[in-house]
Amino acid sequence: MLRVGDYKISLDVKEEGSNVDFISHAHSDHISAARSSKNILASNETVELMKIAYNIDTDVRRIDMPNSMRIIDSGHMLGAKQLVIETDGEKVVYTGDFQLERSLAAPKIEIENADTLIMDSTYPYGDLAFGNKYEEELKMQRWTNMSYGNGIVLFGAYVMGKAQEIIRILNDVGIVPVVNRKIAAISNMYKRCGIGLEYLSMYENVDECEEALRHNFVGITDNNSLKRIPNKLSEVHEKRVYTAVATGFSRMFSFNTDAQFCISDHADLKQSMEYIEASGAKKILTYGNGKERFAKEIARNGLKAYPFIE
C-alpha cells in the first residue's frame, strides 16, 4: 500500500485498509479490487474492458482523479496506465505492467522524470532478453503464411491485449483471422477506441466467417482452448492444424506447439534499466512477485533498488 497524505492507495491488489484502489489495466491478475472497492482509480478503457470481459461494472464506484495524481500510458495494452503522484515537492511513479517496445495495439509508453519509481517486476531475470520485436513479428508472419498454405493455423493467446496484437500483426500481411466470441467482443472495444483491427467472428459476420472456414484459415483462440480443439478442428476440416503461441515466456519455456514467438507486452531487464535511466529516478522500489530478485538484478547494474513495502 502506498500512503500519500490522507490517501492509502492499493496498487493492482486489494489490500485491507486502503481507501483508494488503483487498477492499472484490465488483466485478471490486476483487478482483485474491482468487485469490492468503493473508490477505484482506473482509465475509461480499463473500466469498459472489465465490463466486457468480467461483467464488472465499476462506474458508480470510480472516484475523480485527486489533484495530486494523474495517469499516463504504460504501453502494455489498451487502457493500461501508470500512476503519477506529485506531493510535497516529490514525484512518485508506479509503472504497473509496462513495455518500451512499440505495440501495434496500444498507445506508446510515456516516461516522465521521477524522484521515486515503483517498478513492475514481471521479468526480473538478468539472463533473459526479448530481442528485436519487429524481427520476431516478421518471423511470425512468414511462418503463418507458409503454414496456412498447407492447412489451418491456430494461435493461442490471452483474449485481452495479446490477441488484439496478433490480429494487427497478421493484418499487416493481409491475413484476417477468425476469432472466438470473447476475443471478438474485446476487439470491438479496441476498434471503438481507434485501434484498427480486421477479424471474422461467427457472432458478428456469419456469412464471411462461414466462407473463410470452407478454406484454409488462421484462427485465434484462448490458451486453454488451444490445448483442446486442434484435434477436433483437424477431424472436422480434414486438414492439418498448425499451432502457435506468441509470448515473452517463450524465452523461458518450451510450449507444446508447432511454433512459438517471443512477442511480449512486458519489459525485460535491459528495457527496465533504460526506463530507469530515462526517468532519472534516484529511488527505485521493485513491485510484484519477483521484486526481491529484481532489486538484486538492478543492483548488479550499478543502481540501488529495494523491494517495495508499505
Architecture blueprint of SSEs:
Elements: E1 2-4, E2 7-11, E3 20-22, E4 40-41, H1 44-54, E5 69-73, E6 81-87, E7 90-94, E8 116-120, H2 133-148, E9 152-157, H3 162-171, E10 178-179, H4 181-192, H5 206-213, E11 218-222, H6 223-228, H7 230-237, E12 241-246, E13 259-261, H8 269-279, E14 283-287, H9 291-300, E15 305-307
Parallel strand pairs: 2-3, 3-4, 7-8, 8-14, 9-11, 9-12, 10-11, 12-13, 14-15
Antiparallel strand pairs: 1-2, 5-6, 6-7
Helix pairs in contact: 1-4
Description:
The chain is an alpha/beta fold. It contains nine helices and 15 strands. The chain has helices at residues 44-54, 133-148, 162-171, 181-192, 206-213, 223-228, 230-237, 269-279, 291-300; strands at residues 2-4, 7-11, 20-22, 40-41, 69-73, 81-87, 90-94, 116-120, 152-157, 178-179, 218-222, 241-246, 259-261, 283-287, 305-307. Strand 6 (81-87) and strand 7 form a beta hairpin. The protein is globular.
What are the salient characteristics of this protein?
6-stranded mixed sheet; Metallo-beta-lactamase, Chain A; Rossmann fold; 5-stranded parallel sheet; alpha/beta; 310 residues; 9 helices; 2 domains; single chain; globular; 15 strands
